[in-house]
Amino acid sequence: MLVLVTLLTGACWFSNSAWANSPDRLSRILQQKSLRVCIWPDYYSITFRNPRTGQLNGFDIDMAQQFAKDLGVELTFVNSSFAALMDNLVGDQCDIAMHGVAITEARLEKLSFSEPYLKSDFYAVTTKSHPTVTQWDDIDKPDVVVGIMGGTVMEPVMRKALRQAQIELIYAPKTREQELEAGRIDVFITDYPYSRKVLDNADWAALLGPSKPFFITNYAYAIAKVKTPGDQRWLNRINQFLLATKNDGRLLAIARRYKLERIAVSDKK
């Protein structure tokens, strides 16, 4: 037992020492000429893989390409999800998450965020023919089943907000649209970008918005929690990139390309 403890202690010391003496993340990215970006490939207009062509497109796909170009490095996309987000970043599976990550208190415990670049309220999607859910105020009623994608910011917020409706968590490979069209849920909660997917592709869908702001959410780029000066240097470089794209017009131009200009945070400084 004593030998085992000694070996484990030595292994931990070596790991920490090696980390302390290694270049910080930004230096490693530049030296290795490689940027690993976590994305959720089902996020329409943000980071979406076209099921017919297999090609990635969306606001943050284009922004990631611009960031890699500014850094002068190669870009690698790493498939992730909101449920796996924190584990992927903390586990060093990627250098940054660029897929419309909402800033929440729970995520701030393990992650650090850039300045916001998008902001959106919550929206609801139901069917045009639904007999009882025709406006936002119809959602929190008995016998209404509300679909929410597990791991998204909508989950904790709607758990607190809904008093009578039943919540049904949905995880891939299931989709909210499939569950709604099949009649297993009455409505689902989403944000502005994802609502565009439904409206662009389903003529049976109806969009319901709150009559007043419900939960305005800021979206930012995420990295593992800042703990060292090197981590802060990496976060500063990300914010430098965002500021540059706001000032030179790239951010707003990309937002317009994907019909997201109404939620873009493109104020210049």
TrEMBL record:
Keyword Signal appears in the UniProt entry: yes
Signal peptide: 1-20
UniProtKB keywords: Signal
Pfam families the record matches: SBP_bac_3 (PF00497)
Stored InterPro entries: Solute-binding_3/MltF_N (IPR001638)
Domain of life of the organism encoding this protein: Bacteria
Solute-binding protein family 3/N-terminal domain segment(s): 34-262
Name of the featured protein: Amino acid ABC transporter substrate-binding protein
Native source species: Parvibium lacunae
